[in-house]
Design goal:
By secondary structure, the protein is α+β, with helices and mostly antiparallel strands. Helix content is about 20%, strand content about 30%. Strands 7, 8, 9, 10, 11, 14, 15, 16 and 17 form a nine-stranded mixed beta sheet that branches. Strands 1-6-3-4 form a four-stranded antiparallel beta sheet, with no helix packed on it.
Length: about 300
């Protein structure tokens, strides 16, 4: 862990740390996502503006020499060209390797399918610009070269590349739309969970709109202003409408085994990094999600 006091500098945090450490801004963004950077004792966004006297604390993770192997794992490819590949990720597929889990991931599958992936995030996360949880399905884009990676990462930061989600949540939400503005941090009682808290947290904003109501559930569409870990799952629990099947955050589906939360990244919007074309991808609902909707509709008749 390193701590420095800012002197004679006013500008973005990621540029400051890139100049200080020699790391890429993509690597620094990943450190921020992993809660390894704070400013004045609080978790910090890479785009925040520093001022003289700010105290920056950061931890550079040690590089691991890992042999991440290509694996012939089926992929539902929505789009592919020489710069990007858009995949409809299946339930149960982890996005990238992690300690103790170096195989059976989306990265292993991409390495098998693609001859090249961007190297900005290193050997363990090649091509990966953003993530979705293991048991969340739907759209995810990976990059095949560093130029595309930098473009998509910048779009994500500027919110011109974004996803929309469909979720089945418990109970009947009475209003047609809403905004949840509540900071998210690690749950001090369980480090594997996130929670709404004012301590060591980061701003988090979720917008939702009701699509369909059932007797005991509501289908909603969500969009995010921020990209916090488990954000939709945490926010829906916070307003007492947890995502159905999300046992980590307090809801077990009694009608069928959903194998985790009923949450699907249905739509992805981005600007193509080479052509500048505005692109929109849609991932069809997985079969289990459709079956659960059919069941709830019948129960609500």
């Amino acid at each position: 862990m390193e701590t420095v006091t800012v002197e004679e500098y006013t500008g973005r945090l990621d540029k400051y740390l890139a100049d200080l450490t020699g790391l890429s801004r993509g690597r620094i963004r990943q450190m921020s996502d992993d809660d390894m950077i704070s400013v004045n004792g609080k978790p910090a966004k890479v785009g925040m503006k520093l001022k003289e006297g700010d105290i920056v604390t950061y931890e550079i993770p040690e590089d691991e020499e890992l042999d991440v192997q290509p694996e012939d794992i089926p992929l539902d490819i929505l789009y592919e060209d020489s710069d990007i590949i858009v995949v409809n990720k299946q339930k149960g597929l982890v996005v990238h390797p992690a300690p103790g889990n170096y195989s059976g991931t989306l990265v292993n599958a991409l390495l098998y399918h693609c001859s090249d992936l961007s190297g900005i995030n290193g050997v363990i996360r090649p091509g990966i610009v953003h993530r979705i949880d293991k048991d969340t399905t739907g759209c995810i884009v990976a990059c095949k070269n560093d130029e595309a990676h930098r473009s998509i990462a910048s779009q994500i930061e500027n919110k011109t590349c974004h996803r929309e989600y469909l979720a089945l949540v418990a109970g009947n939400i009475p209003h047609d739309e809403g905004k949840i503005d509540a900071p998210i941090g690690r749950d001090p009682k369980d480090r594997q969970r996130m929670t709404v808290t004012d301590k060591n947290s980061r701003d988090a904003v979720t917008h939702f709109r009701v699509i369909e109501r059932f007797k005991k559930a509501t289908l909603i569409r969500c969009s995010l202003e921020t990209g916090r870990t488990h954000q939709i799952r945490v926010h829906m629990k916070f307003i007492n409408h947890p995502v159905i099947g999300d046992e980590k955050y307090g809801h077990k589906c009694r009608e069928t085994d959903t194998q985790g939360q009923v949450l699907h990244a249905s739509d992805l919007y981005l600007t193509h990094p080479r052509t500048g074309e505005q692109m929109h991808f849609q991932a069809p609902l997985p079969e289990y999600f459709e079956k659960l909707l059919t069941l709830y509709r019948r129960e609500s008749e």
